[in-house]
Amino acid sequence: MHLEMPLVIGLMVAAIVLAIAAKRANMPYNVALVVGGLLISVGNLLPGVPPLNPEVVFLVCLPALLFEGGITADLNGIRANALPILILSTLGMVLAIGATGSLLHVLVDLPIWPALLLGALLAVTDTVSILYAFRRAPVPSRLSGIIQGESLFNDGTALVAYAAIASVVAGAAAPSIPMLAARVLLASAGGAVVGLAVGMLGGFVIRRTEDPLAEIMVTTAVALASFVVAEQLHLSGAIAAVVAGLAVGVSLRREASPQSQVAIHSFWEYATFGVNTFLFLAVGLTTKPQTLRDYVPETLIAVGCVLAGRAVAIYLPFLLLKLARPAEAVPPRWQHVFIVGNIKGALSIGLALGLPATTPGREKLVAIAFGVTLVSLVGQGMALTRALKWLGLFQQDEVALSMSEQRGRLIASRAAHQELATLHEQGLVPRAAYEHLRSEYQVSIARAERELRRLNEHHLAQGAKDLIAMRRRLIDAERTALQNARRSGLIPETTAEHMLAQLDERTLNLEKMLHGAHGEEPTAEHGRKAS
C-alpha cells in the first residue's frame, strides 16, 4: 500500500481535528473517527486514500492490539473469571456463529455456508472499543474483567472458525461439523502454546537486556513473532498474541526495572493509540455509501440477526453456568451489557475484504459486513454508556464527586481572589468594593477548604486516592525538572538517569497503591507510605 506524504499528513490532521471534536462533543473517540472518515470519503476531501488492506490489519494491527491487551491485562482478574471467560469464548462463540448464520440463511436468502461465514466474521468483537470503554467506565470490577477477558480471547476462536468455514465455502474442505470443531479446538490450544513459548522467551531476553529501548524492541518482536509463527503453523495467531502479551506482562511486573516498565507501557500505549486511529479512520474512509444503499434492507435484517445470535451466545451459556456453578453465576443485568457492548470494528471489515473473489455472493457479504459494522460502531458505541447508566451499572462515586466540586470551587475562588487583588493594585476597583468582594471570596475559600477537610477525615480511602494522585502529579513535575536540568548541562547524564529511575519506581509504587494488586481500595496508611 503506497501512501504519499501529503496524504499521510492529511490523515494525521484529520485524526487530530476529530479527536478534539469528539472531546468537545463528549462523543467516543472511535465513533468520531468512523463518522469523520465517512464524511471525508463522501466529500472527497482526501482523494487518493487506498482501501483498507486486510494484510495490514492481520499482520500488523491485530497482533499489536491483542498483545497490548494482554500485556496490560489484569491476570488476577482473568484467573478469577476464567470459567465464564472460557465459556463465552468457546461455547458462546460457536452459538453466536451458528445462530447468526442460521438466521442470515433464512432471512437474507444466503446459502448456509456463506451465511455461516458471514456469521463468523460478524461474531468478532472490536477489542479496541471494549477495552477502551471498560477501562474507563466505573462499572463493577467483575463485570469489567469478564468483558475484557472475553474480548481478548473470542477473536482467536472466531478467526479460527472463520478460516475453517472459509475453506469449506472455497471447496477446499468437506463440510463436516465435527471436523470443524476439532480444527477450532486444535488451533486455539496450539496458538496458546505458541504464545506462551514465545512470550516466555521474550521475558527471558528482557530480564537480561537491562536497556529500555532494547526491551521495547523485544516486546515488538514478540508481538509480531507469536502471531506469525502460530499462523504459519495453521494455529490461532490471535490467541498466540494475547497469551504472549500475558506472559511478557508477568515477566515485566516481576523482573523488569521500574524504568523499563514505564518505558514499555508508554510505548505500547502510544502504539495502540496510533493503530486505533488508523483503523477507525480507515473504516470510515473505506465505507462506500453507494454500496451500502443497495443493501439497506439486508443490512438492517443482519443487524437484528447479529443481536439475536449474540443473545443466544450470552443467555444460554450463562444459564448453564448458573445451573452448574451457582457461585460463578452472572446477574441478568450484567448479561444485557454483553449484548450492547458487542461492538464490531475494523477486523470484521478486514475479514470481509479478505474474502476471495470466487466466494459465492461476495459483494453482498462485503456490503452487509460494512453496513453492520458501521451501525454497530456508531449506534452501540454511542449507546453503551447510556445503557450502563440505565441498567444502574455506571457506578458514580458520590464522595469523589463532592470532593471534585469543592476542589473546583476552591480553585475558582482563589483565582478570582488573586485577580481581584491585581485589579485593586492597578486602581481599577474602589477600596470599598474591593473589601466587600475580598470578604466574599475569603468566605468561599474557607468554606471549600473546611468541606474538603471534612470529607478527607470521614472518607479515608478517597482521601488516600487524592493524595496519591497529587503525588503522581508532583513526581511528573520532578521528572520534567530533571530532564530540563540534564538538557541544560546542570547535572550529568548518569546522575539524571539514576534519579529518573528512582522516580519511575515511585510512580509504579503509586500505581499499585491506587489500583491495588487485587482491586482493593487504597487506605490512608498506603497514602502515607507513598512518600
Computed over alpha carbons, the radius of gyration is 26 Å
Helix share of residues? Answer: over 70%
User: Low-confidence parts lasting 5 or more residues at pLDDT below 50?
Assistant: 517-531
Beta percentage is under 5%
Helix count? 22
Largest β sheet strand count, sense and barrel closure: none
Mean pLDDT, as a whole number? 82
| DSSP, total strands | 0
Structural class determined from secondary elements: mainly alpha
What is the chain-wise order of helices and strands?
HHHHHHHHHHHHHHHHHHHHHH
For the termini, the CA-CA separation is 51 Å
The global form is: globular
Short description:
The protein has 531 residues and is mainly alpha-helical.
Provide structural commentary.
Helix 3 (54-71) runs antiparallel to helix 16 (346-353) and helix 10 (212-232) packs across helix 12 (258-286). Residues 517-531 have low confidence and may be disordered. This protein has helices at residues 5-25, 29-43, 54-71, 75-80, 82-107, 112-123, 127-136, 141-169, 177-207, 212-232, 237-255, 258-286, 289-293, 296-324, 332-340, 346-353, 362-390, 398-425, 431-458, 460-487, 493-515, 524-529. It is globular and about 90 Å long. It has 22 helices and no strands. The protein is mainly α and 531 residues long.
